[in-house]
Amino acid sequence: MPAYNPPLRDMQFVLHEVLKVTDEFKAMPAHAEVDAETLNAVIEEAGKFAAEVTFPLNITGDTEGCTLDKSTHEVTAPKGFKEAYAKFVEGGWPALSCDPAYGGQGLPFVVNQCLYEMLNSANQAWTMYPGLSHGAYEALHAYGTDEQKKTYLGKLTSGEWTGTMCLTEPHCGTDLGLLRTKAEPQPDGTYRITGNKIFISAGEHDMAPNIVHLVLARLPDAPKGSKGISLFVVPKFHVKADGSLGERNPIFCAGLEHKMGIHGNATAQIVIEGATGTLVGEPNKGLQAMFVMMNAARLGVGNQSLGLTEVAFQNALAYAKDRIQMRSLSGPKAKDKEADPIIVHPDVRKMLLTAKAYAEGGRALQIFCTLLLDKAHHHPDEKVRKDSDDLVALLTPIVKAFITDNGHIATNACMQVFGGHGFIKEWGMEQFVRDNRINMIYEGTNTVQSLDLLGRKVLSNNGATLRKFGKLVAQLVEEEGVNEKMAEFINPIAGLGDQFTKFTTEIGFKGLQNPDEVGAAAVDYLRVAGHFVFGYLFARMAQVALREIAAGNTDPFYKAKLQTARFYFAKLFPETATLMRTARAGARSLMDTDAALA
Q1: Distance CA 296, CA 299 (A)
Q2: Is this model's pTM higher than 0.85 or not?
């Protein structure tokens, strides 16, 4: 059976020693009183909840899955899920970073980030139920009417009700401009919604008495394509004026998808048969409102893979220390045993360190992004808010695609450490691999994220936002450029920074002549960008570790951090050279292939 220990020390290192979040909070009136002790106490309790309440349900939930009663359209979650969710609500966890005006605790987003990383390590399928609710809360908080906010935000904040996002239809996934769900205006100002949706995570379940669906649909006179999409809030049960539940709205689960992983989450086929909904935001501008939820979800999906990378690493490390196989190539290490533990073998260490580096780099990036979100929402300086918002927009596709791709690499590597036992269900490793695989697909496939990064976030403004991040790197390079002890961390990012500007310009010019050149380069480009960001954050982490060691701090944590950073720059970061070469190979070898693909 697998085990899980919340990585509190590393979280605290990133929060307090690298990013110094409480110093940042002092400039934000909403969070000025939040201190390190408060953050640490909340995160510690969050770790206990994840490890003690939801983690024990992970394998059983995967085995049991969800059950649909086709006569009533009701779905039952795996045994223990409902009770765990009740404890989650009772503990006030859904309200952690929500607006106090609606019953929230008003804590910084970085706290919520740490909570959800640990929940995802413990049980990704379970965590998707409250995670999607938070996205619905964000969309309604940003674009809902006063009446919608009054009706739904308090219940979503408390966790009494849950939420979903209903986008995908059988004939359209990423291309939402093709959707056919209809919304007909009614005399009372509501809308009659009719259509079919698929792949709706947490679309039906028994964990909460009401589900607040955010549904994309078309008005009768809507323009074609994505410019004719509106967003509607469609509750499972109608809500009376006093806030109590009324009659059932005709939005039903017609089937559950049979999936590779996340079996404990109800991925529903939703049939909408004239359900009553109300408009969110302006007519035909639904994607603008939905993107609030989608961007929150994309950051959340990156967090899912971060969580799985961490828990897979922990279990692979423990196994590698215990399992004995063969002798070390450099001579026996455990002379009192018949063989050495497999952790002595170089390639086993490479697999373990790959997972460790991708977990620690991903954690630093996620906390960095959520600190930027806190600044974008709460900093009094308009320029700081704008710059922070721009950086989050740039980094969101990297968080979603790079961390989930890394999660695929890491969970597979950790399963490999177990050898044949990794392929056996009882060890838990194959579930981490299966659960992670969806993260590269939903909320916009990783190729879509790559196109978003290169086309929309970089080339569309001639690299202006990318240069904002480049300034952070340049500042660190200038600060530490003459420090010989930092050279092994600074030189690689300084070198890539120079190359990256030329690389971006080159692809941009080729794209002007042939747009397929952008499509051919985008996936490789995002991965180069991901390493550029990780390299910056690992250099900052190494900077802190070196300072602590120089000051006489003997905590082995800092030595471990330096060793992980050295491994990252020696074995993983150099991938950028190959990626830039393959990106420069262009589109011809992909597009001039009609005979090969006949």
Answers
A1: 5
A2: yes
